[in-house]
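ingest -> validate -> predict -> emit
validate: passed (alphabet ok, no gaps, 183 aa)
predict: started
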Amino acid sequence: MRRLIYGFSVSVDGYINDSAGGIDWTHPDDELHQFHNDRFRDVEISLHGRRLYELMADYWPHVPADAPRIEREFATLWTEKPKVVFSRTLTEVHWNSTLISENAVEEVRRLKAGGDGVMEVGGASLAASLMPHGLIDEYQLFVMPVVLGGGTPFFPLLNTCVQLRLAETRIFDKAVLLRYLAD
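emit:
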């Protein structure tokens, strides 16, 4: 069965974007960017919610040829990586993406059962819909040294407790990785 990872840069107070939706404070240095590139290379399928897909699709396929090598590398990885986009409002997706408009939970169950590699979920709303069903196997929080005071929380309000086990910590110059496994 495939493992599903949910990971994001997160403020010290637990937000993945600021109250205006901005993510400028998450810009990684080369060390962290290379780590993300290497990690993403191992992902079989990337699951996106609509907002994250639109954000990524607006930028990564259009990275200029004179951009830093590390950004061009991720742009190639992202455009070529198989993606499943969950949206009720989009009518089409591009760059090796498949659109699913209904029943994200059942589709993710099907995708998990379809192999033994690694998938990642991107998008707080999509991840929030999967958490209560126990579909996320690993949480990766890249804690950035900033307090935002509001925004979209990494973890949604839940009716049940999700037990986690710390599997790894790693210190980067611009972030601390906290990697947890779901019990």
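The radius of gyration is 16 Å.
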